[in-house]
Protein: HSP20 family protein
Amino acid sequence: MDPFKNMQDWKKNMDNFFGEQFWSEFEGIMKPPIPQINIYQSDHELTILCNIPGMKEVKNIDLFVDYASLEIQGVISLPSQGNLVQEEILQGAFDRKIELPFPVRGDKVDATYKNGLLNIQLYRLITKESNKNRVSVRVMDKD
Structure:
């Protein structure tokens, strides 16, 4: 038995009672963020897989890298096949910001799209400048 079978009817009743703006507070709880992602980490690289089905023009995906965050913007638009009976593949406009486990290079980002998956390769930012400073040691007299 599907526990969410009557969810749409329940939501319509709640919309009538509370108003449609009521649900905006619960959007992240009831609907997972899109696109869905997996992040894989190695010593100096991150691979991020994003589930973006049906993308016909990759120029419609915007990627922004800023130090230790990645922002992905676009639209998931699936073709209509008739009346929607059940929806599990989420669609619509998205703007997702992902905090990364370490700073990455903004000048070296590889992104490819194949079979509905956006593959983003990021590389750890390793600065050549060192914050290592020599500290003078003073000898204290024994008294």
